[in-house]
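Dear Dr. L.,

I hope this message finds you well. Following up on our conversation about the binding site, I have prepared a predicted three-dimensional model of the protein together with magnesium ion. For your records, I am including the exact sequence and ligand specification that went into the calculation, followed by the structure tokens. Please feel free to forward this to your student if that is useful.
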Amino acid sequence: MERTFLMIKPDGVQRGLIGEIVGRFERKGFTLIASKLMTVSKEKAEAHYAEHHGRPYYDDLMSFITSGPVFAMVWQGDQVIALSRQMMGKTNTLEAAPGTIRGEFAVHTNRNIIHGSDSPENAVREINIFFEPEELL
Ligand code: ATP
Ligand code: MG
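The resulting structure of the complex is given below.
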């Protein structure tokens, strides 16, 4: 069974979308195996977004993701990595289909409500950044 790391970003938490978003993954049939409201430290933010270091949007991404509480989650289910990315919608909000989370709730690419792991390797890496093994059911 596959696992992924999903995170409601500060804009999603601030706008009161935790329940809406958790509900979508529950109704899809996935299982929540860990979750917490937390502030992302500079160290965790840098580790999480290491591959974006040097990009023009990197500094904004760092300050945004550390700007307020996020809701970090681990979800489990068949093909949860690819299916949750589909439910989130495309990164560029102009391409995020109506009905997806970003399509419904996001206007700007740099304030796009939710993060989801994009590969099995990154899922393991990101879960380990945000959760201790004993926090997972
Ligand atoms: P995430 O990793 O947050 O789930 P993603 O995998 O859809 O998003 P990535 O390419 O990994 O997209 O980019 C990580 C984040 O960096 C995006 O969610 C977005 O907030 C920001 N970002 C990426 N590209 C741009 C861009 N061109 N302009 C502004 N912000 C961007
Ligand atoms: Mg990504």
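In brief: The pocket of adenosine-5'-triphosphate (ligand 1) is lined by residues 52, 57, 61, 91, 109-110, 112, 115-116, 118 (CB under 6 Å).

With kind regards,
A. P.
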